[in-house]
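fyi for ur records
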Amino acid sequence: MRTRVKICGITRKQDAIAASAAGADALGFVFYEPSPRCVTPQVARDLVGVVPPFVVATGLFVNPDADYVKHVLSQVPLDLLQFHGDESPEFCNSFGMRWIKAIRVRQRSDIENAFREFHQASGLLVDAWDPQKYGGTGQAFNWSLIPQSRPLPLILAGGLASDNVSRAVAQVRPWAVDVSGGVESSKGIKDVEKITDFINEVHRVDETD
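which gave:
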């Protein structure tokens, strides 16, 4: 199985173009003001405008008001929603869009419970636990906590970079990996070489199996 790659936290057109050209399957646009990678709907609309066909434009939200999500959707042609906070399944499912749910992992039961609770999601993203941050920690977690039984496609995030993603893919066998800070030169500014190295490492593991 080919492991998909999502490059999250895109803030510049040249980064969207470079990530797509390097082979990214999805790009993430953050609509969460506390994040240094946050973009406005107006900026995001321009960014999505340079995303080529068959690359999934994903909007990331953290505990948003429903009206704000609807406002973004009225401005930005997103393909997928990603909810990274404490949203309920009913909330996530209320926008008539495909969506994935992100959770912060402390123990195996967090993942098992999320598979059941968010069974209507298109996928489950597992990230490192932090009591203050909803993702973007730059920290990995204990991948052995991830169960082999996965009712939904599993997306691995948290502290990934080119120096550890091959090990992550080999150990976890996720449907996809999601990276932001691990391919940046500074917060919100992507590094083309790091993106290319990251994607090449993912593909290298896939090709050796």
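The radius of gyration is 16 Å. thats all i got for now
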